[in-house]
Amino acid sequence: MRSVLTLRGWWALCTSFLGRGAVQAASKAADSSRAGRSPLAQSPQRIVSLLPSLTETVCELGRCERLVGVDRYSNFPAQVRSLPQAGGGIDPNIEAIVALKPDVVLMATSSRGVQRLESLGLKVLALEPRTSKDAQRVMGLLGQLLEVPDALRIWRAIDAGVSAAAQSLPPQARSLRVYYEVSTGGYAAGARSFIGELMTRLGVQNIVDPKLGPFPRINPEYVVRADPDLIMIGSRNVQGLEQRPGWAGLRAIRGEHVCVFTPEESDVLVRPGPRMAEAARVMARCISQKGMP
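Given the sequence above, the corresponding structure tokens read:
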């Protein structure tokens, strides 16, 4: 029988914390579980994490020492850099994961390796936070799994940090219209993404229509028509910005109102987890330095 963590009883717990969009259920094995009973006999001591935000959450909860392997992109905190790497979220190294003998594998719901790992008898908890609320619920769920009683207190401190960053900005920041490009190919942070939610809490206006989804692919002409006051973009994606059709005339580019985030800052900004308060501070600093007249 497949050893699946997302069984019916666990599914009830997961959805109460995450909502169906952030947890993947293994419905085929659901009828073998009992309501309210965790498939793990005890809190996992050997954990493989294949998503950086989940790696960071485990460590923020004080259980970093239980990690025995991570994905190639998990690089924070520093102590995880010396752990064995087991591929990426899209291309997990199944053999390496099995060799690490984990009690549980944490990975994204969109990963193609979930079913393969389950078929090999490994327990998998598939989580993929896309919003701030999802990140909070993941913190609560992993707190229960790892027996950390004050997990939500940790989250409240993170949330307070975001509020403090918002309060540091002057009232005129609310008039700013901002475009945040997340990755190459024109993928932007929509209003319903965790990045878009941070922008809203900071008081700025996102030029991306919420109807387009959390991380839509935006045509360059869309940005030209919107003509944002401020552009946020990572250094990995900034090359050729002015050469995009019509972009040389954008007010943000003409006035040099462009924040180019370092790779380290981008890592903080694109991971919905414990460093969201830091992400809010990075964005607030950008707004103060580049967005204000």
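The first strand starts at residue 47 and ends at 49. Try to locate this feature in the token string yourself.
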